[in-house]
Amino acid sequence: MLLRRMFLVLILAGECLTAQMVDCPGISIDGYKIMLDKVSVLGPGTQTSELLLNRLRQKVQLDLAAAKLETTPEMVLVPCRDRAPLDVSDFSRTIVDSLNGHRVLVEIWGQIEARSGVSVQRAQLNYTLVPVSYYDRPLVPPGGFSTAYQQRLAGRPDELVKVFGEFSDLKAYVSIAAGVKSLKEHDYDQAFACFCRANSLLQQAPAGISPALRTSLARYVDQKVVDTFNQARADRSVRSGIGMDGTSPACPGVLP
């Protein structure tokens, strides 16, 4: 009887863990995508937590709209309300391969505190840069990058939305991921524009990216600019306007 109970507990635990990392049907549509998973809320499920989640969705949508107006390609935000990774170990090679095949650029997941009466509100968001994790896996942390946000509040629940006021690193991550995916799809002009935009964003020191990580990403982007030029020159099957005049592989200054 004891063994049977233990077996049932293990089965239920396994089902619970599997349910966290369910597939997201929305990624089957065509085009580039940003996945926004079910962000876990620490604390009571009140209107405050719903306010935070709605604010997060709105902020991501606004940042993506701004990114598309700048240089990055057309993409859609795909909400995945039933998908909630537990930690970076959920992003196995098989899962990253599937996401990359569906042209997912970034998957966003994490936790938000929603406790009343606190003076500092905190949230942690994780970004899995799918093309980078797939093609350059040794260069990135398992599962992607993590950013912790916190905002000192005056005690009013409506101020919790300020926790994402400096949510500025997503555009840099999206630009890098879009550049890598475009390069692999032989769209060299688009890849070059994305990498140069990422370079510009990194120079502005996004609040959520540490100086060490920013330096590492800047080196990575610089190398990708060189790779884009070299591949565009060597690929006779694709017409590209970059580097054909013999110019050196470098971005034309800081983009607006």
Describe the structure.
By secondary structure, this protein is α/β, with parallel strands linked by helices. It has one domain (25-234). 44% of the residues lie in helices and 17% in strands. It contains seven helices and six strands. The protein has helices at 2-20, 47-70, 93-101, 130-135, 170-184, 188-203, 211-234; strands at 32-37, 40-42, 75-80, 104-113, 120-129, 145-152. Strands 1, 2, 3, 4, 5 and 6 form a six-stranded mixed sheet that branches. Helix 2 (47-70) packs across helix 5 (170-184) and helix 5 runs antiparallel to helix 6 (188-203). The longest helix is centred in the first third of the chain and has 24 residues, at 47-70. It is globular. The relative contact order is 0.12. Residues 1-19 have low confidence and may be disordered.
Question: What is the radius of gyration?
Answer: 20 Å
Q: Main beta sheet: strand number and arrangement?
A: 6 strands, mixed
Globally, the shape reads globular
How far is the first residue's CA from the last residue's CA? 69 Å
Percent of residues in beta strands?
A: 15-25%
Low-confidence stretches: 1-19
Helix content: 40-55%
Total DSSP helices: 7
- Tell me the structural class: alpha/beta
Order of helices and strands: HEEHEHEEHEHHH
Average predicted local confidence, pLDDT: 76
